[in-house]
Each structure stands twice: as structure tokens, then as C-alpha cells.
Design brief:
The protein has 156 residues and is of the alpha+beta class. The chain has a single domain, classed as 2-Layer Sandwich (Muramoyl-pentapeptide Carboxypeptidase, domain 2), CATH 3.30.1380. Helices cover 37% and strands 16% of the residues. The chain contains 5 helices and 5 strands, in the order αβαββαββαα. A hairpin with a 2-residue loop joins β4 and β5. α1 packs across α3 and α4 packs across α5. The longest helix has 16 residues. The protein binds zinc ion. Zinc ion binds next to β2 and β5.
Length: 156
């Protein structure tokens, strides 16, 4: 296994199965509505999270995250970042219609962050410190089953 912190994981299978399934459905719906959005990043190792946290702080670049290792839902397999694509290439633009994407994600029960447009997660209102404790005591599968049973169902 690669532990390169620069490597982006786009494997749906490294996410919680309920999350992964719903993400694929929501992205398909967005694409069907003409939005060229796709799955950019999913599971993120603690090592990579710390690497990203360093950007704009101890390493040059723009600050891109508020979270250190285990403070992001990406470490728990229930978060993903989306990105628009132009001609098959990832592209960021101020004019990207994120409001339309967020409407669809909301319909599928995803939670969004006000400060990070590209990010969607499903936490069922749990705090990240509680999630960390559940994983330490019982493992990731138990966390996933708690979140899956407590989450809000799709509204469409
Ligand atoms: Zn994210």
C-alpha cells in the first residue's frame, strides 16, 4: 500500500458502503441534470490530512483545510470532495454552479460545509470526537452502522 501523502484516493470502495452508494447516485443525478461534477477525493489517511493541514502554515500555498489528522470525516470514510470537469480535466472556477450541486446533494441527504463548497459528508449529527472514540473502542464498521441507522433518508 502506498503511504504517499500527496496521493488522492478516488476509490469508492474505501468509503462506507452506504455513503459510497449514495454518492454515486447523487453524482449520476447531477450529471443527468447537465452538471459536469465528479468524485474528486474520498478516504484520506491521517498522514495525508496532516500533510494538507501544513499547506499555507508550515509549507507554502493557500490554506485548504481546518482539520488535522482524525479531525476530518475523510478519515472515517463518510466524506468526499467533488470537482467540476471541463473536457475531462478537473477545473475550478468562481462561476461553477455549486448551488445547483448542493441542492442535489441536499436531496440525497448529504451535509455541506459553509466554508468548503466541494465537501459533502454524512455524520448523522455526530461530533468528530465521538466518532474517533467509537472507532478506537469498536472499529470503523460499528461507526458506519451507527451513522447509517441514524442518518436522514433521501428526500426525493
Ligand atoms: Zn473534504
Amino acid at each position: 500500500m502506498s503511504h504517499d501523502p500527496k496521493k488522492i484516493n478516488r476509490d469508492y470502495a474505501s468509503l462506507a458502503p452506504f455513503f459510497s452508494q449514495r454518492l454515486q447516485m447523487a453524482i449520476q443525478e447531477a450529471q443527468d441534470q447537465g452538471l459536469s461534477i465528479d468524485f474528486f477525493e474520498g478516504y484520506r489517511s491521517p498522514n495525508r490530512q496532516d500533510y494538507l493541514f501544513e499547506q499555507g502554515r508550515t509549507r507554502e500555498g493557500k490554506i485548504i483545510t481546518k482539520a488535522r489528522a482524525f479531525q476530518s470525516w475523510h478519515q472515517y470514510g463518510v466524506a468526499a470532495d467533488l470537482c467540476f470537469k471541463i473536457d475531462g480535466k478537473w477545473a475550478w472556477s468562481k462561476s461553477d454552479p455549486w448551488d445547483k450541486v448542493h441542492e442535489i446533494m441536499d436531496d440525497f441527504g448529504f451535509e455541506m460545509l459553509s466554508w468548503e463548497k466541494a465537501h459533502v459528508q454524512i455524520t448523522a449529527g455526530m461530533s468528530i470526537s465521538k466518532a474517533e472514540k467509537i472507532v478506537q473502542d469498536h472499529g470503523l464498521m460499528v461507526l458506519w452502522s451507527i451513522i447509517e441507522s441514524d442518518r436522514t433518508g433521501p428526500r426525493n
